[in-house]
Amino acid sequence: MSAQTEADLLATVPSGLFIGGEWREASTGATFDVIDPATGEVIKRIADASAADGMAALDAAVAAGPGWAATAPRERAEILRRTFDLLQQRIDEVALVMTLEMGKPLAEARGEIAYGGEFLRWFGEEAVRIAGRYGSNPEGTGRMIVSQRPVGPCYLITPWNFPLAMATRKIAPALAAGCTVVIKPAELTPLTTLFLVSLFVEAGLPAGVINVITTTSSGTVSEPIIADPRLRKLSFTGSTPVGRRLLKQAADNVLRTSMELGGNAPFVVFGDADLGKAVDGAMLAKFRNIGQACTAANRFIVHRSVADEFAARVTARTRELRVGRGTDDDVTIGPLINEAAIDKAQSLVSDAVARGANLLIGGSAVDGPGTFYEPTVLSGVQAGSEILREEIFGPVLSIVPFDSEDDAVRLANDTEYGLVSYVFTADLARGQRMIDRLETGMMGLNVGVVSNAAAPFGGVKQSGVGREGGLEGIHEYLETKYTLTPDPFA
Ligand code: NAP
Predict the structure, then answer these.
(1) Which of 23, 76, 142, 484 shows the greatest Cβ crowding within 10 Å of its Cβ?
(2) Residue 489 domain-assigned?
(3) CA 40 to CA 293: how far, in whole Å?
(4) Measuring CA to CA, which residue among 184, 174, 132, 171 is closest to residue 151?
């Protein structure tokens, strides 16, 4: 990929805020730099919204609300579908923009677009199936009508690790339900969202239905939006600490909320598992997205009878991973998002080793430019190690042995998180017991990736509230209205 190709593409990505159907500069004229984590270089300068810009975006979403809610579901569906088609046509460009701002290998960026694009198609299909109920009350004295209405203007906040899919997973159901939105992507990866929104515009989206604010002051810009009584819904994907803070702010307006928060996924391998499949699953569950996924396996809980062999096999596979800039051929591990991510990975590895873990491969940052960390495997990780409690968010695979099924369940559930769990076993009854016993919103049984637009994605415990995708996803943006009328024959 030539530097000129990259520069030419980046020049086509909008650099402004998108409010009321117009691209505009920040009201203060402020801008900020977007950086390629693989080189540390500035790749684009874009508008830095103020709190006033955030309120202008909310004004636009509120103004467009009634018109969009009254738009025929088929028309809403067609716009989502046209955007899906445009995304497929432009997949190489969107993937490159994503890789440049976030770092993931190009093949993974394309994979994210395939996954994230599906939300546009899926919720386009759901838009025309929003249904209610009609029937007699049990007493026979009246008729009960249950209908679904759009909740109203929504504020969507997305993280940097899946810049496209986290946006489509919120925008698509909101628009399908008839809601208008303000979206705030992460400061670190705003370009993919700006590109996506330009495709919605090309697909014929009316002004004000989607508004985008990019900012370096997420708290200052978000607080007045969340405090405004015209806002009806807050949907957030990000870390649990920020989610908690936003839930407190949302409580003042009794806002509808969806919270997709952090994870600490256990990956349990029983002695009877097909070890080859478990290793394949482990490599995906751990190293996809450079380990920076809420669904990334964080703790490999492996039966003592196979723990050494599992460790040897994943170490051999880890040795084959190729670290580098995501735009380069054959690279499988891009950079971490920033220096703070490197420091976190290093401190978790050092703590685990100091407490007795064996470092089988990796364990150090790679010299810059760029923020790279070696793919790392630790075995024999001891209870009490920070790495078992914290979300690693990096390419570090840590193995803990266990002896009995009860042990495995206790270790797996020993976390405040409950997003996803992975279990590998050849014993069907054991697999079914694990479905019942693990405290988790999602589970991969003999698979290392569960995400699918047709499935309800979300967590229990401190991993969040609500579900995105599946039949459930659109209901996060709908209100149920019940009406009673007298028996028309009385
Ligand atoms: P983060 O620091 O919580 O940020 C997420 C988003 O919230 C960003 O847009 C951020 O903006 C914004 N934000 C931060 N502080 C805010 C505040 N006070 N008010 C309003 N907005 C605020 O998380 P991250 O580091 O971007 O993402 C990684 C985390 O997301 C991990 O914990 C991961 O597990 C979680 N995640 C969860 C899911 C899921 O579906 N459950 C999916 C992906 C990621 P700025 O960055 O611009 O400040």
Answers:
(1) 76
(2) no
(3) 22
(4) 174
Angle at 201 between CA 196 and CA 205, to 5 degrees: 115
CA 1 to centroid of ligand 1, rounded, Å: 30
303 Cα to the center of ligand 1, angstroms: 34
Could you list the pLDDT tens digit for every one of the 490 residues in the chain?
Answer: 688 899 999 999 999 999 999 999 999 999 999 999 999 999 999 999 999 999 999 999 999 999 999 999 999 999 999 999 999 999 999 999 999 999 999 999 999 999 999 999 999 999 999 999 999 999 999 999 999 999 999 999 999 999 999 999 999 999 999 999 999 999 999 999 999 999 999 999 999 999 999 999 999 999 999 999 999 999 999 999 999 999 999 999 999 999 999 999 999 999 999 999 999 999 999 999 999 999 999 999 999 999 999 999 999 999 999 999 999 999 999 999 999 999 999 999 999 999 999 999 999 999 989 999 999 999 999 999 999 999 999 999 999 999 999 999 999 999 999 999 999 999 999 999 999 999 999 999 999 999 999 999 999 999 999 999 999 999 999 999 999 999 999 9
Tell me, yes or no, whether 255 and 368 share the same domain.
Answer: no
**Catalytic center residues:** 260, 294
Q: Please indicate, yes or no, whether residues 305 and 431 belong to a single structural domain of this protein.
A: yes
Q: Which residue has the tokens 């596979």?
A: 317
**Ligand 1: nearest atom to the Cα of 294:** 34
Contact 304, 403 (CB under 8 A): yes
Q: Tell me, yes or no, whether 474 lies in a domain.
A: yes
Regarding the beta carbon of 186 and ligand 1, being less than 6 Å apart is answered yes
Centroid of ligand 1 to alpha carbon of 80 (angstroms): 25
| Same structural domain, 232 and 374 | no
151 and 10 housed in the same domain = yes
Q: Looking at the 3D structure of the chain, how many domains does it have? A: 2
Task: Identify any residues that bridge with 36 across adjacent strands, giving them in sequence order.
Answer: 41
159 CB less than 6 Å from ligand 1?
Answer: yes
**Closest C-alpha to ligand 1, atom 46:** 186
Within-domain flag for 46: yes
Q: Looking at the structure, do residues 393 and 474 belong to the same domain, yes or no?
A: no
- Say whether both 320 and 433 belong to one domain: yes
Residues 253 and 280 in one domain: no
Q: For residue 285, which of 423, 80, 480 has the smallest C-alpha distance?
A: 423
Ligand 1: does its nearest atom lie under 6 Å from the Cβ of 391? yes
State how far the alpha carbon of 347 is from the alpha carbons of 363, 399, 414, in Å.
Answer: 10, 17, 21
Cβ of 168 closer than 6 Å to ligand 1, yes or no, is: no
What CATH number should be reported for the domain holding residue 395?
A: 3.40.309.10
Q: Give domain status of residue 487, yes or no.
A: no
261 Cβ closer than 6 Å to some ligand 1 atom: yes
Residue for token digits 């349990």? 268
**CATH label of the domain that carries residue 94:** 3.40.605.10
- Which residues form the domain of 50? 3-261+464-480
Name residue 45's amino acid: R
